[in-house]
Amino acid sequence: MTPLVQLATPFSTGTGLYLADHQLVITNEHVVRSNSTVVVEVDAYSEQLAEVVYLDAYYDLAFLRPRVALEVTSLAWTSTPPQIGDAVTSLAQYMGEPLRELSGELLDDKLMHHGIQYLLHTAREGDTVVGGALLDAEGALAGINMMNVRGSSTESLALPTQTLEQILAAFGRGEGKPAARCFHCREITFELAANPKGFCPNCGQPLVLPSLIEEVTPIGVEATVEEILVAAGHDPRLARRGPNLWRIRQGSATIQVTYHEDSGLITGDAYLCRLPELPSPDLFAFLLRENDRLRQLTFSTYGRDIILSLLIYDRYLSLATALPRFEELFEQADAYDDVLVETYGALWR
User: Fold this and answer.
1) Residue pLDDT, tens place only, 191-219
2) CB 208 within 8 A of CB 190
3) Best CA proximity match to 202, nearest among 189, 213, 216, 215
């Protein structure tokens, strides 16, 4: 299984690279900023919380420590940095989408940007998926993709593994203690040596250490949604997938809960099994009959996905009124999956 992992917080989603030798996920600081824990997902059925243990706004890097070591394939690190003109490959993956392998070539092996040396390459398609891996022609890790080149639709910058090794070695001197690099003096401060008031002990400038970040506390509608999830037996911290978005697994079904602030609508969409290439009329007749029978849930199809949905407006959202409706959605989603596959020939996702 690829060492590329997907990350989610209440504010954003992103990509990271798991380094098995260090038992750390490497990602971008801006992806995890203002979060003490981050959801790490290897695939649709393997997710957990990881602690933020290193913040580095200067290099835009962060290290996360999963609570349980991830079972993924380790990448070899390049022994010889790639040269200009060499073929390179980016591993990229947006949240919930398949892994992509993007081919290109190295244009510059020593490009300086804001005082940092990068690899300039063309292994890109659209926006760079930052935090992904850049591989050399032999498939070894050559760098971590960091950003697009402004004004270019084809070029991206990657931090070389040589720089990453230096940062990992500096972090390792703390023997596992959380740490942060000061953006101003560039010195790394470990938790035990830190000024508890949030200032760098070397230069006195503000410094955000992992221990100073408070756990995210939702408010308003988001707080009510998470209260409902807790009452239904789910951990909302593991369900968070960006702003106003949660993903729940109930048996074989995946349920996406979304709050649309502009309309005030909360939707619960359970993605069930998939339509076969030639679905039988009996399958559609069953969905129509169930739509006529169900009072608050509705079947629909999108592409080949079969979806069971719940709609509720925020002015009606409370634990007392909404919990029974969400519990029914969760329970029915798992049950309908079995019926649709075993009786009507639908396909497992």
Assistant:
1) 875 556 789 999 999 999 998 999 889 99
2) no
3) 189
Q: What count of other Cβ atoms lies within 10 Å of the Cβ of residue 217?
A: 9
CB 248 within 8 A of CB 254: yes
The two structure tokens encoding residue 177: 């203690």
- Per the CB < 8 A criterion, the answer to whether 17 and 26 are in contact is yes
Query: Residue written as tokens 């970040």?
Result: 213
User: CA–CA distance from 191 to each of 19, 20, 49, 110, 175 (Å)?
Assistant: 22, 24, 21, 33, 11
Q: pTM for the full model?
A: 0.91
Distances (CA, A) of 111 to 51, 102, 120: 33, 21, 7
Question: DSSP labels for 139-183?
Answer: S-EEEEEEEEPTT-SS-EEEEEHHHHHHHHHHHHTTTT--EEE-T
DSSP state letters, 269-317: EEEEEE--SS--HHHHHHHHHHHHH-SSEEEEEETTEEEEEEEEEGGG-
Q: Which residues of the chain fall short of a pLDDT of 50?
A: none
Residue type, 180: A
Q: How far is CA 239 from the centre of its chain?
A: 11
